[in-house]
Amino acid sequence: MSTAIPEILEQVRQGALSPEEAEKKISALYHGDLGFADIDLRRADRTAYPEVVYCAGKTVEQALSIMTNMREHGLPVFATRASKELADRAAAAFGETDYHELSQTLGIGGLYAQAEREGLVVVAAAGTSDLPVAWEAARTAEFFGSNVRVIADIGVAGIHRLFKRLDEIRAARVIVACAGMEGALAGVIAGLVAVPVIALPTGVGYGASFGGLAALLGMLTSCAPGISVVNINNGFGAGYQANLINRPSAAFSMIKALD
Question: How much is the pLDDT for 30?
């Protein structure tokens, strides 16, 4: 329960606040109602992490309004699929921002400083063309408190490149394997390591890759154990899941707080 709620109820008890006014105040603690969006202001109370802004399909003005409301409530902002125009507008509005153009991710008021990040997530990208999605995963895990290392261009077409980096890959607590085409990288890595592998299919490839469907199905049907699979190009989902695995203490602390 928010610490503000007992204060509001005490005001009702003392007669300083009507029940109707108290209801509005309590609702405002949980809802950032902008008409076109209802921001989940207390998500971190349930899940340990705040809501993330998915910018695709939103106008620049809508995305900025959401970010403004979150910042007014003291929340850090992490935005995905954010355009350069939006990043420039956000920098003008909020001052210090952290924009990564390749992954189109934008951070404002980060959750963790570099020295506070934990463990290690390795994001392994099969090819250079997979890097925008791979970096979305990396930036997500980093924002939410993980140390991250991106290892690029180690796809199975030149598998000796993967073996050259194997010691680095094995140092991770969890690995995101990002690949398009036939998506074989995830299965190969999972057969070489003793930690969870999150398979991240991308839409990279020629016609018969069907925009990432071939990679998705290949990852889903991999015979190597220890693999979970996220949706095509869902770098955010892969990075978020990797962070949960890498930093279980955050989840355990939240469960204990809710008990």
Answer: 61
pLDDT at 111: 80
Question: What is the mean predicted confidence (pLDDT) over 72-90?
Answer: 94
Residue 48 near residue 251 (C-beta atoms within 8 A): yes
- Which residue range(s) make up the domain with 64? 31-108
Residue 6 domain-assigned? Answer: no
The model carries a pTM of: 0.86
- What is the rounded distance in angstroms from the CA atom of residue 182 to the CA atom of residue 126? 11
118 and 191 in a single domain? The answer is yes
- How far apart CA 196 and CA 76 sit, in angstroms, is 28
Q: Are 200 and 77 members of one domain? A: no
- SS3 assignment, position 235: helix
Closest CA to 148 of 138, 162, 160: 138
CATH classification of the domain holding 141:
3.40.50.1970
Round to whole Å and give the CA distance between 101 and 27: 36
Distance CA 60, CA 89 (A): 8
Asked whether the beta carbons of 204 and 235 are under 8 A apart, the reply is no
